[in-house]
Amino acid sequence: MVTSSKTNGTIHLTLDEAESTELLRLLEYTLGETRVEVHRTHTPQFRAGVQHEEGILKSILDKLQNARS
């Protein structure tokens, strides 16, 4: 079951265990790929964008992990 609501730019999402597990797996995989991309890029502006994306992914991952504990 998935429910969601949006208030003042904040999204509240309810996931069942399987959905939560899959989202966590996808976030961890994507974060790993992002870290590889940071190390491979030589363009400072692109690197900064990828590092920003990495920070967002870490934040989402932390929130999901904290919600599961």
Report on the structure:
The protein has 69 residues and is α+β, with helices and mostly antiparallel strands. The protein has one domain. It has helices at residues 17-40, 44-68; strands at 3-7, 10-14. The protein has a two-stranded antiparallel ribbon. Helix 1 packs antiparallel against helix 2 (44-68). The protein starts with a strand and ends with a helix.
Radius of gyration: 14 Å
Point out poorly predicted stretches. none
Estimate what percentage of residues fall within beta strands.
5-15%
Query: Average pLDDT, to the nearest integer?
Result: 88
Q: How many alpha or pi helices?
A: 2
What is the makeup of the main sheet? Answer: 2 strands, antiparallel
List the helices and strands and how they pair.
Blueprint: E1 3-7, E2 10-14, H1 17-40, H2 44-68
In short:
The protein has helices at residues 17-40, 44-68, and strands at 3-7, 10-14.
Question: Notable features of this structure?
Answer:
69 residues; alpha+beta; two-stranded antiparallel ribbon; 71% helix; 14% strand; globular
